[in-house]
Design goal:
six-stranded mixed β-sheet
């Protein structure tokens, strides 16, 4: 009996993911999954000097039950690590340590710039991105980047 496409060793069950656009004042969150390779903005969490409400993150994890977490890695334009990379890596390691879910880092160069462009293209002109944050849209771009090439993920 011939194998069906779903029975091939390369076939994997669909996975759900939460992506985080880490920041010191706000952390954008997006939800996505591999079945349709889609991502959607979820929320923007407040943070105090990069420290989120871990209880809010736990609630998101309980509600969405992701198989993996992604955190944007804010590399410099030349690909070198910025000082902020260490803070993002620390956040990623804390996510894994607190919740035991696999975490990967994704190059996030220009995601906020791209997210602001999407927002402006929709006619939303914010006088302040604190009033109309784009961090959740940046998290969508981080997740879409991973969906297009999961092998590009980096360990925290």
């Amino acid at each position: 009996m011939p194998a069906t496409p779903d029975a091939t060793p390369a076939a994997r069950p669909p996975r759900s993911l939460l992506a985080f656009d880490f920041g010191t004042g706000q952390i954008g969150v997006a939800i996505g999954q591999t079945l349709t390779n889609t991502a959607n903005p979820l929320t923007v969490l407040k943070a105090r000097d990069g420290i989120p409400s871990w209880q809010q993150i736990e609630q998101l994890l309980l509600e969405w039950q992701p198989d993996q977490l992604l955190v944007g890695l804010p590399l410099n334009m030349d690909g070198s690590e910025s000082e902020f990379c260490q803070r993002a890596r620390k956040f990623a390691r804390r996510l894994h340590g607190r919740f035991g879910i696999s975490v990967a880092m994704v190059d996030e160069r220009l995601t906020t710039f791209e997210a602001k462009g999407h927002q402006q293209a929709q006619g939303k002109r914010a006088t302040s991105y604190r009033q109309q944050p784009v961090d959740d849209l940046a998290a969508v771009i981080i997740l879409e980047t991973w969906l297009s090439d999961p092998s590009a993920a980096i360990s925290p």
